[in-house]
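Can anyone check this?
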Amino acid sequence: MHESPLRRACLFALCPLALVSCAKIAPPLPPVVRVPEATQELRLIQTGGAAKLLFPLPSPEINAVLIHKQCGPVVPWDEEAASLNRVEVADLKLESPGVYAFVDTSTRADCRYAIRYVNDQKRISAFSNTRATASQPAPQAPANVKVQAAADRLIVTWEPPQLDVNGQPARVVGYLVNGSQMVSIPRFEDRDFAWGTAKTYRVQAVGQADNPLVLSTSSPEVTMTPVDTFGPPPPIGIVGLFSEGKVQLVWRPPDANDLKGFRIYRGLPPAPMQQIADLVTENGFVDQALPDEPGALYYQVSSIDQKGNEGEKSTPMRVERGGVGIANPHDRELAGSSGG
């Protein structure tokens, strides 16, 4: 018997449906278990009676950090032991890009710390590397911080601490200014400033420089807004030549960005120096109104800035009537290339 074309078409269409209906559906795969990796980058800074722990967060899947602490005899870390603190990532302080901080305000000498991460699956990492507080107590904070302006720098000074936080003689190996500039003496010179712009300073004494870094608490902050009252340095290579009843002065200008001009002084000992010209804009001057009194003449030149501040006067230069004067013998080479 021959099947009709319609019957064959129907069988051909129904066979795949039958096969699909008979196939078995596999159970869903279990979720992948992700255990966070322990960090080996835990650091510790001891400040006064507090311990600051610094560490990275290795992945965005970390939800919390477990802080572990031991004081006393050294024993292995116990995964079943309760942690000192559990800190949610949202509550961590960002110390610097990629680095987070936790502060234990009740530490003491020879305490040890480690951390563990907790991820979004509540899986816990192994313990990090261990960091310990120092046996050396932190110094007390420096006192009497002062800031003084100079022509090209701000000078910060302070009194070193004499005692540590336990009231014993302090061990101080250096100082940390504004948390970044380390110096070995109680003085810091800051050349990175601008006139009229306030700068603030705080100082910490360093009791131990590393493993761990031991710092005092910060001194009170001192803020200064420097005012430019300093003139440029004097010109160099000053030469004076007496000829035909007048004195020709020439010099080289100082290295100053805000130079406006020069001020000229003349003296005839024992009389004091007197100003004879102001805001000379050339690198030279002709003194034509010489005094009638006989004897050698003395000259000094100072620089004036755009704000009218006068700098120090040059070394007095003696000019004999009928000779050449040079302000400083060491400037002869410079003087030879001076322009008038």
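Reply from J.R.: I decoded it. The CA atoms of residues 46 and 185 lie 21 Å apart.
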